[in-house]
């Protein structure tokens, strides 16, 4: 185990790439050490300071609906710019986005073999689009791949989340999708992750997700499922599109007690930039980030643009180029560079490394599960 830890932590990662201004994601600055000062100093224009910070600590955007949006376009060029969607390479660069998770979610109504097939088509589309835009985009499957893409001046693209329907209730399909690059699976909508919580097969599915290195996305799941996943999962868990229920009641938003519990298990809540879940202004989004940071901690909050998902977005945040406006708002509220570096970049890197470490450890002790839903829940 010591050798495995050494291997994971000696790989060139985000802290090394960010230069001397960036503290390691899991540690605060040493006591008595001054906060690294952004370009222009504390009195500089917040937007200029935001851009300087994002140059060192780019955004890890936890959700993009771009794949499904692109299916409806007869032709597009993301490197030159594509105004028919919210996301293209020029706007990703203007927004200082370093890595983007491309959703494989499907329209409601697809189930069974149709859902499995449609998810495979989505996965193939993502890889085809990325390979067609080599000057701006690069596929990544780990934090090492993200670092490589950043070193080459590309935006890293990761696969996920996909919906649970994509599995067809099969652990074998889960493993196949992971081999093809899927890294996040949304549990909501699965028969084995219902209002009553995880079934026996659901717990076996979660254990196998831990074993292969697939992150569990709990946005939209019941509190019973959330509680059980927190108890069973050996790897970090995340919510790809959840804000604070106390500020804006919404089915996917989290009540305060869940946010406190999330902080205790060191999970991650990615706040969506949608008017429906967070409110109509950039200040509303910042209120949610403040609230979640207070209850769960700075290491448990991140960002989810949710662009190209069909949702309306707050003022000043209409597309992927607008992250500096949000960071400027947070700077004006007194967020430190350390906390902002965790928000934009460090926290996503932490849970990806955590899932990878857990998977390598479990693979030494646990064989692939051959369980079927009929065996455990029948």
Explain this structure.
It is a single chain. The chain is α/β, with parallel strands linked by helices and 378 residues long. The protein has a single domain, classed as TIM Barrel (Alpha-Beta Barrel), CATH 3.20.20. 44% of the residues lie in helices and 11% in strands. It contains 16 helices and twelve strands. A four-stranded parallel β-sheet has the order 1-2-4-3, with helices on both faces. Helix 8 (171-179) runs parallel beside helix 9 (200-212). The protein is globular and about 65 Å long. Mean pLDDT is 90; it is low at 1-36.
Brief characterization of the structure:
It contains 16 helices and 12 strands.
Which SSEs are present, and which pair or pack?
Elements: H1 2-10, H2 14-17, H3 46-56, E1 59-64, H4 66-70, H5 89-94, E2 97-102, H6 112-131, E3 137-139, H7 143-151, E4 155-159, E5 162-163, H8 171-179, E6 184-186, E7 193-194, E8 197-198, H9 200-212, E9 215-217, H10 223-232, E10 238-239, H11 256-265, E11 268-272, H12 275-278, H13 282-296, E12 301-304, H14 323-332, H15 337-363, H16 373-377
Parallel strand pairs: 1-2, 2-4, 3-4, 5-6, 6-9, 10-11, 11-12
Antiparallel strand pairs: 7-8
Helix pairs in contact: 3-14, 8-9, 9-15, 10-11, 13-14
- Shape estimate: globular
- Gyration radius, rounded: 20 Å
Described by strand count, sense and barrel closure, the largest sheet is: 4 strands, parallel
What's the tally of helices? 16
Give the strand order of the largest sheet, numbering strands 1, 2, ... along the chain: 1-2-4-3
Give the number of DSSP strands: 12
Architecture in CATH? Alpha-Beta Barrel
Mean pLDDT: 90
Secondary-structure element series: HHHEHHEHEHEEHEEEHEHEHEHHEHHH
**How much helix is in the residues?**
40-55%
What count of structural domains?
Answer: 1
CATH topology: TIM Barrel
Which structural class fits the helix and strand makeup? Answer: alpha/beta
Low-confidence stretches: 1-36
Protein name: Membrane dipeptidase
Pfam families: Peptidase_M19
Organism: Streptomyces dengpaensis
Region (Disordered): 1-43
């Amino acid at each position: 185990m010591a050798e495995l830890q050494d291997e994971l932590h000696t790989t060139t990662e985000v802290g090394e790439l960010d230069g001397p201004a960036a503290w390691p994601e899991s540690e605060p600055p040493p006591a008595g050490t001054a906060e690294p000062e952004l370009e222009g100093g504390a009195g500089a224009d917040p937007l200029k300071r935001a851009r300087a910070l994002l140059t060192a600590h780019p955004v890890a955007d936890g959700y993009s609906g771009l794949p499904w949006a692109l299916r409806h376009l007869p032709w597009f060029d993301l490197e030159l710019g594509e105004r028919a969607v919210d996301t293209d390479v020029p706007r990703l660069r203007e927004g200082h986005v370093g890595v983007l998770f491309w959703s494989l979610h499907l329209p409601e109504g697809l189930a069974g073999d149709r859902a499995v097939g449609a998810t495979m088509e989505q996965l193939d589309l993502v890889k085809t689009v990325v390979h067609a835009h080599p000057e701006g985009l690069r596929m990544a499957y780990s934090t090492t791949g993200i670092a490589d893409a950043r070193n080459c001046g590309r935006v890293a693209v990761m696969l996920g989340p996909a919906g649970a329907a994509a599995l067809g209730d099969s652990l074998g399909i889960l493993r196949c999708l992971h081999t093809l690059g899927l890294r996040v699976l949304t549990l909501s909508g699965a028969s084995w992750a219902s209002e009553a919580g995880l079934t026996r097969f659901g717990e076996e599915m979660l254990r196998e997700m831990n074993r292969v290195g697939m992150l569990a996305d709990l946005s939209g799941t019941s509190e019973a499922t959330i509680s059980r996943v927190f108890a069973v999962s050996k790897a970090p868990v995340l919510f790809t599109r959840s804000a604070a229920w106390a500020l804006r009641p919404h089915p996917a938003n989290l009540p305060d007690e869940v946010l406190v519990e999330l902080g205790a298990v060191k999970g991650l809540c990615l706040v969506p930039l949608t008017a429906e879940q967070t409110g109509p202004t950039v200040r509303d989004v910042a209120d949610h980030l403040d609230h979640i940071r207070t209850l769960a901690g700075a290491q448990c909050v991140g960002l989810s643009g949710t662009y190209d998902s069909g949702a309306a977005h707050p003022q000043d945040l209409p597309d992927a180029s607008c992250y500096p406006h949000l960071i400027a708002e947070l700077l004006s509220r007194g967020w430190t560079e350390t906390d902002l570096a965790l928000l934009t970049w460090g926290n996503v890197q932490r849970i990806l490394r955590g899932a990878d470490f857990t998977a390598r450890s479990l693979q030494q002790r646990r064989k692939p599960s051959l369980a079927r839903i009929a065996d455990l829940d029948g």
